[in-house]
Amino acid sequence: MFDYKCSFNAPWSFRKLYYLFNSSNSVNIRGKISDLEYLWECLSDNILQVEKLVIACCPRPAKPHKGKSMTEEQIVFKQACLGGGNLHSWLKWWSYGWLLAEYGETPIFEYTMRSYGRADIFCPVNKIIVECGDTASAKVNVSLSGDLAESFVIVPYQSSIIENYAMANPCRTLVAFIFSKNNNI
Q: pTM of the entire structure?
């Protein structure tokens, strides 16, 4: 499990990237090691830049009462729960709340794009792709190489989620990383 307390400041190493994109410590990483090496080269050569973010976690909406319509917040939470397990769903829920608060744009869950595949969350106006949990590193290069996205955010699985999962108000903040093209070169 990704240790959100560890130092993820520059310079980036291959090992840091490996753990970021394989945050569950799975035996098999998603994608190819060569894609991860290429991403590392792009960061080392300042072609891409990455910034650490802290995302505030919003609470889970109250469960709907029998016989009553679901609120808009409950409908969004239900959408976040599609396409992944419990931890993945929580990451999507919190990322949705952060994107809505930060950019004022309603994000779209499970959005499919040609040449990219399906993104966990997409903001079409601000061109932000968000992937939660274990992710193939090639998605960073695919999303930023053309005009699909201006930013690629990865929200890794974090030990804080496991430690606080059963509490009434699970962890208060998450760490995410936003990749973008280096416009200064």
A: 0.86
9 three-state secondary structure: coil
Domain ranges of the chain: 14-181
Query: Cβ–Cβ contacts within 10 Å for residue 109, how many?
Result: 20
Query: Does residue 102 sit in helix, strand or coil?
Result: helix
Pairing of strands 151-155, 128-132: parallel
Phi, psi of 103 (to 5 degrees): -115, -10
Query: Is the separation of the CB atoms in 141 and 42 below 8 Å?
Result: yes
Closest listed residue to residue 59, CA positions, set 102, 93, 99, 103: 93
Three-state DSSP at 114 gives coil
Instruction: Report the C-alpha gap between 129 and 119 in whole angstroms.
Output: 7
In the chain the first and final C-alpha atoms are separated, in Å, by 35
- Residues 6+ away with beta carbon under 8 Å from 104: none
The SS3 of residue 167 is coil
CA distance 31 to 29: 6
pLDDT in tens, 15-53: 888 888 988 877 777 888 899 999 999 998 989 999 998
Give me the sheet containing 128-132, strands edge to edge. 48-56, 173-181, 151-155, 128-132, 117-123, 108-113
